[in-house]
């Protein structure tokens, strides 16, 4: 009890924190303020009580944004503090009606966009609260039940969704487990046949290799013999020889053993494409499956791993022996594709290079064309190439190159200088049911093509680097502003040395002389402007003072009125009492957080669109009257003109 | 709380406290602790507003509820039927033992406005409906055993808890006449006329089995002695007294004639005097009729029909007699609650701090056994008032729409409330030990 009494003084801390947190137009509560609120409230129950009251008061505020932020804070505290839960749950129906706005006579207040967010958030929070704390608080269950079953509001159903997803996942896992188990069972039954198949293939491969080896041996023997005669002394030579020998040991396909190689290749293919993969699969199945009896699984897993290792070794043996051929053919294919890749890359990225090569080829035949082309490869990427060419080409050409214009690379260069004619119907478009004459062989003459292909080039301004001002600053360092002629702080820009001293006195003085009259004028203007601004500010301030005075007076009057009213209401109801309090509170708020209030208030204001402005202008009574008058007078004039003798 | 209770128990052990006193103090303590029960839920099968709730008076165990969707249901509030299946849950769900809804062949067609137990046992219950019928049901077979056709919508029915000599259902209907239906004969035993508008509430006196109190839409509260013609008392809101008892003098002059058996003859005598035109004394019941021929034709017992005194502006929506039968609480559509001294017929001028009362439906009030607290449905909340000072003792918030009825279980000190949101809520004394929930409710601050 004692702490509670003492807490009242402290309570203002959390109140001001909450008020600051809710006095914002942001879509979220400032996390630092929120943290501060939490820490304050965590260690003091009295602060928490005060916070609850404040938050409930804020929920009554006539502004959805304030309510929204307050609701966010309420949620934070609700999920954490038990005391806060018990306090909030007492008035849950009020909180819900203020946040969800389900009562017809208590609709959510102004900014409608925020109001809808507030509503959906409140519903979401209620569901969350109900899921986590519903079992402890009958009120939560009641509120949830009422909104869901009586008002039939749409809840996001997060919990149920999560559960459903989990259920689905469990179902999927169960199914995959079943599949694994069935696979395992089938493996149990015919593991021997699988093993048998693989082993037989491996045996065949071994046999093939043996045959090859045997053939080779007789050949290699005489090679070795012949080698014996040569004298290899040095170490390097020794090594070379060894490698050669190794190379020599390799079996090469020839007409004798081609049949064996074919079989070997077949078997190798079978091994790689089927057995290796299947054994990998079985191993993974064995690893993943869960069975009660592990012995069989472990033993078969061991066996399979052994088989896999043997398979791998056999495979490598095959590759050594010469099934590389199969591989190499594959390599060829890959190479082919790679080449294609390279080409495409070249055309895209280093096309000028390519172009250049082409043109060089042409160069010898047609000097004139070559010249054009040289002109075309102006892009600086080719600088190096140029250098290379310059050495061999004649001086006339280099001279021409020096004065040739630089042209950007583009597709139009493909037929630069060509005087080919083009087919008009180049793509062979069939023009059926065309009633006119169709000339299938129509051509576009070369000059027309040239005309069509005239290349436009935008003018590129030469880039000038704007020099920094470099005048010495008072706090050290040089001014880094870049202005064309005049730095607004340090006057005209002049060349300065590294310490900021002007290099040439005379130029500065000249400039000064030049600018002198200007400067005087400017300063005068500035002075006038300054004075005017000051005057205006003064006026504004006075006005604001007046307004605040007026407002204070009005507030006083209102307070007095409220006091009188409260006194007058002898049969005062609890509602009227709270009404009065509410008013007081908002008054205080206004004084405490005036400048921020404006931003909140601005949310309430309707945005004035150009349409509104036009409508205002057009629909104003004056405009209507004048337009009416105009209309009438023009009608009169017409009448008079039509019947000149009748008026 | 515990020290308090333990001390009392020790006192009781030592014989310092009388058994009755001990029980009462425990009960009143529990009553003062009412809050929304978290350990007990009533799962309402109703799809409409709950109009009436009652616990049987024999066992204090079976709750009877009537709803606007023409359904009636009975619950066991002490043992939940599904306890076995939901033993793990932190709260027990009390599903209805049976429900009589529109699927039932003999069910009511329209909203059931009232359902009451037969006071002697739970073998019968009585329902009254807007389809103009009053049905008497056999609880065990859920069949209608007696059926009464009323002239209009039935608002409220009542049976006397004290009666040993009659089995009458008093029925307040849209009709101006109050009818007493005799279950034994299956016919109307009485037709009490006096009200000028429909009768919203009826209530038997708790002190006499013959006295019936009715409140009408005309704002009148009439007392009837069913052995005699006409009503013997009409409460008048302008007759007031300050405090619980009137001054001795006044009482002797005003209320004496209507008490003993012989007083009625005196009254008749006085009435006769009036008829002769020689009476100069102001008669407490009837305003003196000014025209001669009219009053001459009236039966002396019917003279009270001339009394136009009102107890409330607007309709009288709720009546509740205290357990001792000495006082009567009435609620009106003028959002007032009045406590009447039955003996003197005066308003005791207790200012109950009600805000607003529902006006278009009969309200069911409830009092505690010792008549210290009265529970009143005030729109969405139920307020507990101190009976003698009128101060709000506590406000029970839980319903999301207007509350229509409440019933206080004297045995368990639990309050049941039903409202338009189709919920029946249980308000019970705070439970000190309920830590067996699946997950303890705790603070969960981060870090």
UniProtKB/TrEMBL annotation, chain A:
Subcellular location: Chromosome
Organism superkingdom: Eukaryota
One GO CC annotation: chromosome
Pfam families from the UniProt entry: DUF2043, UVSSA_N
Annotated region described as Disordered, given as residue ranges: 342-397, 569-647
Domain UV-stimulated scaffold protein A C-terminal as annotated: residue spans: 403-504
Molecular function via GO: RNA polymerase II complex binding; zinc ion binding
GO biological process, one term: response to UV
Bias type Basic and acidic residues, positions: 587-598, 625-641
Keywords: Chromosome, Coiled coil, DNA damage, DNA repair, Metal-binding, Zinc, Zinc-finger
Biased composition, class Polar residues, residue ranges: 344-354
Family: Belongs to the UVSSA family.
Protein name according to UniProt: UV-stimulated scaffold protein A C-terminal domain-containing protein
From TrEMBL, chain B:
PROSITE patterns: WD_REPEATS_1, WD_REPEATS_2, WD_REPEATS_REGION
WD repeat residue intervals: 43-85, 105-147, 192-234, 309-350, 396-428
Stretches with biased composition (Polar residues): 252-266
Protein's GO biological process: proteasome-mediated ubiquitin-dependent protein catabolic process; protein polyubiquitination; transcription-coupled nucleotide-excision repair
Region of interest (Disordered), ranges: 248-296
UniProtKB keywords: DNA damage, DNA repair, Repeat, WD repeat
Pfam families: WD40
UniProt entry tagged with the keyword DNA damage: yes
Keyword set includes DNA repair: yes
Top-level taxon of origin: Eukaryota
Gene Ontology cellular component list: Cul4A-RING E3 ubiquitin ligase complex; nucleotide-excision repair complex
SUPFAM superfamilies: WD40 repeat-like
Protein name: DNA excision repair protein ERCC-8
Organism from which the protein derives: Phaseolus vulgaris
